[in-house]
Amino acid sequence: MEQVVEGTTTQRRSIPVWVTVLAFALLLVFLALIAWGLRRAQAGPITIGQPVPAFSLTTFDGQTVHTADLAGKVVVVNFWASWCKPCEQEAVELEQAWQFYRPDGDVVFLGVDYVDTETEALAYLDRFDITYPNGPDLRTAITQMFRTQGVPETYIIGREGKLEYVKKGPFLSLGEIQMAIDPLR
Fold first, then answer.
1. Does residue 179 share a domain with residue 125?
2. How, if at all, do strands 56-58 and 134-136 pair?
């Protein structure tokens, strides 16, 4: 079909069908990726009884702890930050619990430092004499896996690799920590 516009003749070109199909296919792929990301972002935390995916934590002194290597042990994962006042409330008790369980070797503590500077985090660890392995959560990968809601939060993984206990907020005593760990040993 021709159109005449002020003495010129133009011809309308139609878009090939394959271009239209390709455009819609790309749009559907893009929308599917967005939906997948939103679903993942809105997924709840790992719940009690679910297996905890293996992860690695590189400590402040350069050691790498792989949770896959801790199979058969109870693993206490504590999320904290140097700027977190409630974290300070439980710091001494967590270290006391680590010292209590450490000789038997069947309970491992891991401290995961959340959104912090290394200088401040190391000062925090020094101030509370914390000796169990601690490291930064680079790119918040571990925090995202657990879907933490804040700090402090503690997750206890049982011997079979399943989440057995969750504590949001600070532990209030060594006894409270022991009551969470002892049934899992």
1. yes
2. unpaired
**pLDDT score recorded for residue 39:** 65
Q: C-alpha distances in angstroms, 96 versus 43, 62, 131, 145, 179?
A: 34, 24, 10, 27, 14
CA gap 129, 92 in Å, rounded: 8
pLDDT value of residue 170: 98
Nearest to 162 by CA among 77, 46, 56, 43: 46
Any idea what the CATH number is for the domain that residue 165 is in? 3.40.30.10
Closest CA to 121 of 169, 154, 167, 88: 88
Give whole-number Cα distances, 176 to 89, 94, 129, 134, 179, in Å: 13, 10, 20, 21, 5
CA separation for the pair 23, 4 (Å, rounded): 31
DSSP 162: B
Task: Show the tokens assigned to 166.
Answer: 């969750």
Q: Are 184 and 158 in contact (CB under 8 A)?
A: yes
**Total structural domains within the chain:** 2
The yes-or-no verdict on residue 26 having pLDDT over 80 is yes
Q: Which domain holds residue 166?
A: 56-184
pTM: 0.78
